[in-house]
Q: What sequence folds into this?
C-alpha cells in the first residue's frame, strides 16, 4: 500500500487558529491517532477565499432554490466569493491524490451533514456547507466524514476502512489496468465486501465474470463505483457473523472437536454482542496462519486497517 495516505482535513481540526473567532477546534483523535498513518492536506475555505481572522460569523440561507452564504449581522452575501474559491480548489485537490476528507461539523462552508439552513428566517438542520458540497460533487466516490461523527465507533470504523480501501484501489490503478489484476483484487476483497453488502458483491462478481466483454476503462470505472458503494454500507453484526462462519468452514478438517466448539462459542458471543469483533477475528487469524490457508491469508477482511487504530474493539 502506498504510504503515506493523504486525506483532506478542515484546518481548524488540526489546531490552526483560523475560525471566525480566531480560535481552533483541535481534534486529538485526528492528529494523534490518525496522524500516525495519514498525511493531512489542511483546508480552511473561509480564510483561503480571502476572509480575515477574526471575521463576522456567517450562516446559510435558502433563497428560492439557491443556498446563499450571508454574514449574520451586516448581511453581506459571500456566496460568490466562496463558490469561486470552491471551483478552483477542487481542481487543485485533484493533484493531492486524496483518499478521504474530514470536515468540520456545523460549518456553513465545511459542514457535511445537517448544517443549519435558514428559510424565511426559520432554522432547520437541512443544509450542507458550500465547500463540502463542492468536494462531494467533484469527488463522488471519496470517503468523507465529519469530525463529530468520528466519535461514533461504527461511523469511525466505516470511514477509516473506506480510506484504506480507496488507497488499495488507487494502488491497483497505479499498477496498470488488466483483467487479471482486477480478478486478484476482487478475490482478496471478497469477504470484506460481503460483510458490507452481499448483494453488491454478487453484482461485482457478475461484472468481473463478463469483464472481457467490456472495454478496460469501462470495466474499471464500473467496478470502482460498485466497490466504494458497497463499502459505504455498514458491516452489521449479522453480516459479520455470516462472514465469520464462512471463514470457519475452511477449518472443518483441521480443528479438533474442542477447537471447533470454542470457535463457535466465540462467534456466538460476538453475534449476541457480548464480545467485540476483534475477538473471533483474532482467533481466526491464528488458525489461518497455523494451517497456512493461502486464500484466507490474502483476505483483506482479516486485517483491513492497522491494529494500532483499534478498530473492531467495541461491542
A:
Amino acid at each position: 500500500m502506498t504510504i503515506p495516505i493523504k486525506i483532506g482535513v478542515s484546518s481548524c481540526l488540526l489546531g490552526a487558529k483560523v475560525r471566525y473567532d480566531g480560535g481552533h477546534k483541535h481534534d486529538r483523535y485526528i492528529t494523534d491517532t490518525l496522524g500516525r498513518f495519514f498525511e493531512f492536506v489542511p483546508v480552511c475555505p473561509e480564510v483561503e477565499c480571502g476572509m480575515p481572522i477574526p471575521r463576522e460569523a456567517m450562516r446559510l440561507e435558502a433563497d428560492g432554490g439557491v443556498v446563499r452564504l450571508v454574514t449574520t449581522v451586516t448581511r453581506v452575501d459571500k456566496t460568490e466569493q466562496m463558490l469561486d474559491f470552491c471551483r478552483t480548489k477542487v481542481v487543485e485537490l485533484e493533484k493531492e491524490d486524496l483518499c478521504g476528507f474530514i470536515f468540520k461539523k456545523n460549518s456553513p462552508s465545511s459542514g457535511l451533514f445537517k448544517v443549519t439552513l435558514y428559510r424565511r428566517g426559520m432554522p432547520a438542520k437541512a443544509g450542507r456547507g458550500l465547500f463540502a458540497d463542492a468536494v462531494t460533487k467533484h469527488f463522488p466516490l471519496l470517503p468523507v466524514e465529519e469530525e463529530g461523527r468520528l466519535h461514533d465507533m461504527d461511523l469511525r470504523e466505516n470511514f477509516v476502512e473506506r480510506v484504506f480501501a480507496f488507497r488499495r484501489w488507487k494502488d491497483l490503478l497505479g499498477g496498470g489496468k488488466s483483467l487479471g489484476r482486477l480478478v486478484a483484487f476482487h478475490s482478496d476483497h471478497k469477504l470484506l465486501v460481503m460483510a458490507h453488502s452481499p448483494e453488491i458483491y454478487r453484482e461485482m462478481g457478475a461484472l468481473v465474470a463478463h469483464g472481457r466483454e467490456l472495454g478496460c476503462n469501462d470495466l474499471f470505472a464500473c467496478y470502482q463505483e460498485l466497490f466504494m458503494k458497497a463499502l459505504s454500507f455498514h458491516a452489521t453484526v449479522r453480516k459479520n457473523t455470516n462472514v465469520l462462519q464462512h471463514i470457519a468452514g475452511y477449518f472443518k478438517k483441521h480443528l479438533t472437536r474442542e477447537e471447533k466448539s470454542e470457535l463457535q462459542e466465540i462467534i456466538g458471543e460476538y453475534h449476541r454482542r457480548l464480545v467485540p469483533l476483534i475477538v473471533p477475528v483474532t482467533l481466526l487469524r491464528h488458525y489461518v496462519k497455523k494451517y497456512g490457508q493461502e486464500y484466507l491469508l490474502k483476505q483483506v477482511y482479516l486485517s483491513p486497517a492497522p491494529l494500532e487504530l483499534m478498530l473492531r474493539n467495541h461491542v
User: Anything to note?
Assistant: Residues 153-174 form the longest helix (22 residues). The first strand starts at residue 5 and ends at 10.
